[in-house]
Design brief:
This protein has about 190 residues and is mostly helical. The chain is built from 9 helices and 2 strands.
Length: about 190
Amino acid sequence: MCKNMADYFDGNVAVGKEAVMQVSFHRPEELLSQLVRKESNAKQRDRYRAVLLALEGLSEPEIRLRLSRSRGFIQRWVYAHRDNGIGELRAMKPTGQPPKLPRDREAELKEFLDQTGGPRRGRDVADLLQERFGVTYSVRGALLLLHRLGYEPLKPRPVNPKKDPIAEAQWPQAAPFCPVDSRSTP
């Protein structure tokens, strides 16, 4: 019988019915090389290349010259890989500025908008937001908020600049082939 169980299990130690497994991962250089070849986004590709060149032993100034990137760019992504692995090389989508009107109060705004005769013009909605909710929106911001909530603002009906109300009133009497009593009255 084998005196040392570690020799018998070739480095794996059995604990009860479970055995500790040794798993060899792919070399990060190989994985990064594949990612560099497949990536179409140039900035993302440079992140991978910066780490790959650092793993190959190049110094930060040499990497900077090869990639034409700043010192901060190189250090940020090499350190991100060092501290957290390849998964951290993906840039996070920026979240943007939070809305002035909290999301939990949007339902309350919708109730006001759904009322008969509720505000539908941008200026009226901006005023409502200021009075009822205490948040200041520009007219454009109020219109964007309406759109995001699924509402369409009232829009003025276009008026032809050549419109002549006097000529409109005279036209039914002067129109050929149009009897006066056959036209519909509003």
